[in-house]
């Protein structure tokens, strides 16, 4: 066979002998070249079966460029038999004579022991494309260099090519043994060639003429010579495409790694040309002035006064100084008891409040302008306001003064919030002196209303005695279960037992309904309330929930029951700050308002209601209006696991009488309290009252039916969906009551196992941020999620209302919503885990976002994000009724033991699709709750001070996760706080993506008693308390601190109310 090289000025023709023809689809020929002189091949690489050098030909044609000598003469390319495969020990094992980036010979390869690419964290490891410090006689360029720190983007179906230049910079010839693609992911996605691949718009003849090589064999590089080889890729699906190219030259083996990010039209439309730049927080301390010129309050803050006023509970200077010096108050080293209860929780609340102050300081602005808006308002543009960074609402206020001035500052109340602007009203003198060219320094504040409510609640709680706070100290009770005829025929045995026990309870020792996901906690509460309403006309019931949406849900269930409730007997108490338009029109008639502003009705009207529904914090207004302890015969706390103990005490300490029956319903294995201060979280503020009861008192822990009922029958989830959470969190006790058939409408997405409706779609994308928004998104996952939704809804068998999308980051929520709007699906529910607690959908799709190890470690270290939080994991995977789909990077997922179990659960049942799985034997470093072996030391993560500062000032409040799972009090005894972060700061942030007035109480509550109080906010992720190494803080404190005598003491205040 004759081969002619026509690519150079001097065409060359070679005669070759055909040795073999492969019958594989590629029609490979093995051709020997006996007539060409060639250098001897290395013994170690010679093939015993082929004494002649080989050229591997793929397809129909090979064109190659002879290397030009320094004199310009063409040198025929010497050929040899293919080299042996690289060392099989390559998976993270040292290789002699191997170079990757500027690593030495003893560094690691990214190649595996098979021809496959191991996971490469390109966003964390800059050496993967940093080859500038390579030394030696040969320089090899890297194909597809990063653009702005990210892989080059290419559309699916289009070819992208780049050159690999191999240059001999020495004065001696160098033997080039081979250049080969060792592996690529996806498989066969990259091609090597000696000629430049045709462009995407090239004609068919040019495309047919192009042919790739599997490798380039023996050649000699003369001094100063460069060989150019082309690496090309045409992606067939979205996601990261990687390849390892090995250059075997002289005595060296050099590796180059290629990355391409394949986009489709959806993901490409979501990319941004605005590179991320972190917002610079003000370095100026808060105004030292304690007085300011008052501003003009919004009208709704003047609408109601209360009979009893709420004390200020100012933070004592001594306590502030102690905590700011990171010294630990002595009371936190003591065991919680009746004697120290108020002081213990007051100290934790001080820590929390100081943390909130610190957070708000990061949003202060200097030398900013305001614009006059009409005759009444000045507007201020606040970057990040649309993402609730900072979170400001109607009725909040700012402090402003002329830039650089030490004059007395002015208070400006927020009257309106629009996108990134707030409309303010100051004192008339400020408005009169204002010019739009003026520059101001602005300080943001958070309103202390809800913190003051909690200070009062923990002090009042001491007055209600041990029956509530420490049931083990109270007399053992035996409850006689009351028989009843169910109003709801669907309640099961455990639910009926719980209702019967509630009807028979006397006294204040709490009764607990422990309800895992989908077991009907709310149904049980509704049945108990209706039975009380029906059979006991003396009963007055207060139901408190953790959020407005949860409270509205209880109201909806009560109104939809078969037993009618007179409208005059039921009242929904709303905070004045809640927008009138946000309330379901069907519920308005059960609310009290004037001029579309919600209010608390007068005392006489309140006394007539038989059923009152409120949030935990808003229940404080009942006491402020004059409702006395004992008025309510029954107090129900729904979703009690979501509130901290001081929050739970707001309704209990104020309204619980000697004979009040207290019922808590919740699940300590689902979302817990919102706590921003990490140290307060660990010391006990992150433990809910429900969790303390179930964990520390034998009558609850043992399941004594006189104190607790555990609901076990799950009616929501397909058995395959329920199996894993039941084993992980509920000792395998949950009983699936839903059928095990998978509806055929889900066949359209190609379930690999049609009887197993849990699908893991593995995809490697890219963590991204844009502009000054620190929230993360992954546009590749967005595209995959949208594609799944479109597939499910294409035939109309699955509606938008049947699908929910859960994702941890606000920006990912926004990107998915934007993409869905393009396809006219604006109403499909997309939100955080917190927004889905208590909800369910036929189909749940989870987008995990994270695709970088370092970012995930940072999230875990600071209790942020999504993947290292077992409670959020539990909630996320138990929302689906019929189909659960997880879209994420399996190499990141596997770093947490619970997500890894889910990944293996899918793989073991043949329900995994996508990029290659990480090997099952890979160690799971971050094992979640219950394992402290891998807990990082404070300085063991390689985060320098600059990285930490960047994180602190730029973390999206909507993306953070600060709920602790245990929060046991420490027994430490030293002056300094344990350094759990590299520089000892204790910054915390609000969480992921909840919309206004959606989920749980946010600590930044607003405005004055009787004015506006916000019950919206977001829940943050939690970190398992069992992950905390108690030894890190045990016996660590020697310096004692005693609170100033009588600080915050309320014993002199009459129990009947506040003076």
TrEMBL record:
It comes from the Eukaryota. GO terms for biological process: RNAi-mediated antiviral immune response. GO terms for cellular component: cytoplasm. Its EC number is 3.6.4.13. Residues 491-580, 606-676 form the DNA2/NAM7 helicase helicase domain. It catalyses: ATP + H2O = ADP + phosphate + H(+). Pfam families: AAA_11, AAA_12, MOV-10_beta-barrel. It is an enzyme of class 3 (hydrolase). Residues 67-92, 912-1027 are annotated as: Disordered. One of its GO terms (molecular function) is hydrolase activity. Keywords: ATP-binding, Cytoplasm, Helicase, Hydrolase, Nucleotide-binding, RNA-mediated gene silencing. PANTHER family: CANCER/TESTIS ANTIGEN 55, CANCER_TESTIS ANTIGEN 55. Belongs to the DNA2/NAM7 helicase family. SDE3 subfamily. This is RNA helicase.
């Amino acid at each position: 066979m004759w081969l002619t090289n026509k690519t150079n000025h001097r065409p060359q023709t070679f005669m070759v002998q055909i040795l073999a023809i492969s019958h594989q689809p590629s029609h490979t020929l093995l051709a020997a070249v006996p007539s060409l002189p060639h250098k001897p091949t290395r013994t170690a690489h010679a093939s015993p079966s082929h004494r002649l050098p080989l050229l591997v030909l793929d397809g129909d044609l090979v064109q190659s460029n002879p290397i030009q000598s320094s004199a310009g003469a063409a040198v025929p390319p010497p050929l040899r038999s293919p080299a042996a495969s690289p060392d099989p020990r390559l998976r993270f094992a040292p290789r002699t004579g191997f170079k990757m980036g500027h690593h030495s010979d003893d560094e690691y390869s990214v190649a595996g022991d098979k021809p496959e690419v191991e996971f490469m964290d390109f966003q964390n490891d800059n050496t993967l494309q940093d080859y500038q410090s390579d030394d030696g006689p040969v320089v090899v360029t890297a194909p597809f260099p990063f653009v702005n720190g990210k892989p080059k983007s290419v559309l699916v179906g289009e070819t992208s090519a780049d050159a690999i230049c191999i240059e001999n910079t020495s004065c001696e010839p160098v033997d080039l043994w081979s250049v080969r693609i060792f592996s690529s992911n996806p498989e066969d996605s990259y091609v090597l060639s000696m000629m430049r691949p045709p462009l995407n718009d090239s004609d068919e003849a040019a495309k047919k003429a192009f042919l790739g090589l599997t490798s380039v064999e023996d050649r000699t590089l003369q001094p100063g010579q460069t060989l150019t080889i082309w690496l090309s890729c045409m992606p067939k699906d979205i996601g990261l495409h990687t390849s390892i190219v090995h250059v075997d030259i002289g005595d060296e083996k050099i590796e180059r790694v290629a990355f391409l990010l394949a986009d489709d039209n959806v993901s490409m439309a979501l990319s941004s040309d605005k590179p991320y730049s972190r917002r610079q927080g003000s370095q100026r301390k808060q105004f030292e002035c304690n007085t300011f010129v008052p501003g003009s309050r919004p009208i709704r803050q003047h609408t109601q006064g209360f009979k009893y006023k709420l004390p200020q509970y100012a933070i004592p200077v001594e306590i502030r100084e102690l905590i700011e010096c990171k010294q630990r108050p002595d009371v936190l080293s003591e065991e919680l008891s009746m004697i120290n209860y108020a002081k213990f929780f007051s100290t934790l609340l001080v820590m929390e409040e100081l943390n909130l102050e610190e957070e708000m300081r990061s949003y202060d602005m200097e030398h900013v302008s305001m614009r006059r808006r009409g005759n009444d308002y000045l507007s201020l543009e606040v970057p990040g306001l649309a993402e609730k960074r900072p979170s400001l609402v109607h009725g909040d206020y700012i402090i402003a003064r002329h830039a650089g001035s030490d004059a007395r500052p002015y208070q400006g109340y927020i009257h309106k919030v629009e996108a990134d602007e707030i409309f303010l009203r100051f004192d008339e003198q400020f408005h009169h002196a204002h010019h739009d060219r003026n520059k101001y320094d602005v300080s943001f504040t958070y309103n202390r209303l809800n913190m003051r409510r909690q200070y009062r609640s923990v002090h009042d709680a001491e007055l209600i005695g041990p029956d509530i706070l420490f049931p083990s100290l109270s007399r053992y009770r035996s409850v006689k279960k009351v028989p009843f005829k169910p109003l709801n025929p669907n309640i099961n045995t455990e639910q009926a037992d719980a209702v019967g026990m509630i009807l028979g309870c006397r006294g204040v020792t709490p009764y607990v309904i422990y309800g895992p996901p989908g077991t009907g906690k709310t149904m049980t509460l509704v049945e108990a309330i209706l039975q009380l309403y029906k059979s006991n006309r003396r009963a007055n019931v207060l139901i408190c929930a953790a959020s407005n949406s949860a409270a509205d849900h209880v109201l909806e269930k009560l109104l939809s029951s078969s037993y009618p409730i007179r409208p005059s007997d039921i009242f929904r108490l709303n905070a004045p700050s809640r927008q009138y338009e946000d309330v379901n029109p069907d519920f308005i008639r059960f609310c009290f308002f004037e001029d579309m502003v919600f209010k608390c009705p007068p005392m006489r009207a309140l006394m007539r209601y038989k059923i009152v529904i409120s949030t935990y914090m808003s229940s404080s207004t009942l006491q402020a209006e004059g409702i006395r302890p004992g008025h309510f015969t029954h107090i129900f706390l729904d979703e009690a696991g979501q509130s901290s103990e001081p929050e739970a005490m707001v309704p209990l300490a104020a309204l619980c009488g000697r004979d009040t029956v207290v019922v808590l319903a919740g699940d300590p294995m689902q979302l817990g309290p919102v706590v921003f201060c990490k140290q307060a979280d660990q010391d006990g503020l992150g433990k809910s009252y429900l969790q303390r009861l179930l964990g520390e008192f034998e009558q609850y822990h043992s399941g004594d039916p006189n104190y607790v009922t555990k609901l076990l029958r799950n009616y929501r989830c397909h058995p395959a969906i329920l199996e894993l959470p039941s084993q992980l969190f509920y000792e395998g006790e949950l009983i699936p009551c839903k059928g095990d058939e998978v509806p055929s409408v889900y066949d359209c997405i190609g379930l690999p196992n049609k009887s197993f409706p849990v699908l893991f779609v593995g995809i490697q994308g890219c963590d991204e941020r844009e502009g000054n928004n620190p929230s993360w998104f992954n546009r590749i996952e967005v595209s995959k999620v949208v594609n799944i939704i479109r597939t499910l809804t294409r035939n109309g068998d699955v509606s938008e209302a049947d699908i929910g999308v859960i994702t941890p980051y606000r920006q990912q929520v926004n990107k998915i919503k934007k993409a869905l709007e393009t396809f006219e699906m604006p109403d499909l529910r997309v939100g955080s885990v917190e927004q889905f607690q208590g909800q369910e959908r036929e189909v749940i799709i989870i987008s995990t976002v994270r695709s970088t190890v370092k970012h995930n470690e940072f999230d875990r270290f600071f209790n942020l994000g999504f993947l290292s939080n077992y409670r959020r994991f539990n909630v996320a995977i138990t929302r689906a009724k019929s189909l659960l789909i997880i879209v994420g990077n399996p190499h990141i997922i596997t770093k947490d033991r619970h997500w890894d179990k889910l990944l293996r659960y899918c793989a073991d049942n043949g329900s995994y699709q996508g990029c290659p799985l990480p090997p099952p034997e890979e160690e799971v470093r971050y094992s979640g709750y219950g394992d402290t072996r891998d807990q990082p030391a404070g300085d063991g993560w390689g985060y320098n001070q600059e990285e930490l500062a960047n994180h602190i000032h730029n973390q999206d409040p909507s993306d953070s996760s600060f709920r602790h799972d245990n929060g046991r009090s420490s027994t430490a005894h030293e002056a300094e706080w344990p350094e759990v972060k590299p520089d000892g700061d204790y910054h915390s942030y609000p969480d992921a993506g909840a919309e206004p007035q959606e989920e749980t109480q946010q600590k930044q509550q607003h405005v004055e008693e009787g004015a506006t109080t916000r019950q919206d906010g977001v829940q943050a992720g939690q970190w398992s308390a069992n992950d905390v190494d108690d030894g890190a803080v045990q016996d660590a404190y020697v310096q004692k601190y005693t609170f100033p005598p009588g600080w915050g003491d309320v014993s002199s205040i009459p129990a009947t109310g506040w003076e």
